[in-house]
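Re: that chain you flagged

S.,

Sorry for the slow reply, it's been a week of failed gels. I finally had a moment to sit down with the sequence you sent. For the record, here it is as I used it:
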Amino acid sequence: MSRSDSNSILLTQAKEIFENFLQSQGCRRTPGRFAILEAVYAQPGHFTLESLLDHLFQKNIPVSRASVYNTIELLIRCGLVRRRELGNGTVAYEKALGFRQHDHLVCTTCGKIFEFCDPRLQSVEESIGRLLGFRIREHNLVLTGECVRQECQAKNKP
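Prediction finished late last night. Pasting the structure tokens below so you have them in one place:
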């Protein structure tokens, strides 16, 4: 299956989940909300609300800033988007449907976000949950520092 087919199937599933969620919450199912959902699922990785607004503006999709903010909150509530605090007050969002648990390294010099997955963290999470009698639903691990790219190393030299 090609990546484009996979993305199309994912978007179809996301639309169905969002449709059901909006209906169950008594929210209007507007074209703008679904255009925002499509724009979110067109993002290649992490995004900010500003970059999402820019994307919508470039595509000439007529939605307000308030609609984007409100729709993102709805998408978070129904599990289609995750909000990530990445240190230094930086907030990014990412698609949640069809994406496995992962964690983040954030370069404090260039802002680049690196994703990683280490199965050992899952076993630590399970052990802590058992030890403390806690059902962990999800976690958000963010490690900050400087990446080893030459530009970042040059900026950090005294």
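What I noticed first: The chain has six helices and five strands.

Talk soon,
D.
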